[in-house]
Amino acid sequence: MKNSHPIALTIAGSDSGAGAGVQADLKTFAAFGVYGISTLTAITSQNTLGVQEVLELPTQIIRTQLDALTTDFNINAIKIGMLSSTPIIEAVVSKIKEHKLKNLIIDPVMVAKGGDHLLRQDAVNSLSTSLLPLALVVTPNAHEAEVLTRRKITNLDDARYAARAIHDLGARNVVIKGGHFGENATDLLFDGADFSQFTSPRVITKSTHGTGCTLSSAIASGIALEKSVYDSVSIAKSYVYNAILNAVPIGHGHGPLNHFYHHKNQNVKIAHKASTIG
Prior knowledge:
CATH class of the domain at 7-178 and 212-233: Alpha Beta
Mean pLDDT: 91
Structural class: alpha/beta
Number of helices: 8
Shape: globular
Radius of gyration: 17 Å
Number of strands: 10
Low-confidence stretches: 265-270
Distance between the termini: 37 Å
Oligomer: single chain
Largest sheet: 10 strands, mixed
């Protein structure tokens, strides 16, 4: 049955500071006019200065959240963020298969902005072998791509290698985020055949908490709105750039993006250049 309104699900951890995690995802869905629903996997005590504590939720409540949502909503796209342990990954994967869920946008969250680890080391293999093969799009940053490929990423050539290697793990499309290397912020999309680059100027600011969560949930919003992967990544890149550019300082550390910048600023700046490389 087709929805009268697009619906996107986020499966991720809660950020008490509301800059990242489920809170950032729901803000992003709302900004795109997509109805957001959520499955919590963990609760964190954190603010703009860092993560103080993480409580993983029992896998049973994660399973029943997914059961409850899938029996009532026709879900158009799913963003998956923080799955901190092998049992949680296995619980989510089992429900994805049981309910035949599609259009997974996976942000392989491993480390918070302040350096706190959010994925156990022994869960990396489960992430690579069980979850990534289900992905329509996976969106690692340079560090996460290094962990998945065991190769250092310092430039676009390294990113191309990593994108191919992660595609070989089973993900249909790979976006290597360029926020941690290069003069400009160039995100690289690989669809198994062609590379596409999305470049925006690098914004000098501390308001970058939740950038990865926001990008992946913006891509999921595009997919929920029945846009192509390329168009969804392109629109998400523009959205994140403008959300950073229009952010206002909040907190004493790495502050959040301005997810609703367009409500006050109708004159959106040119966000990025896109190009496709065969």
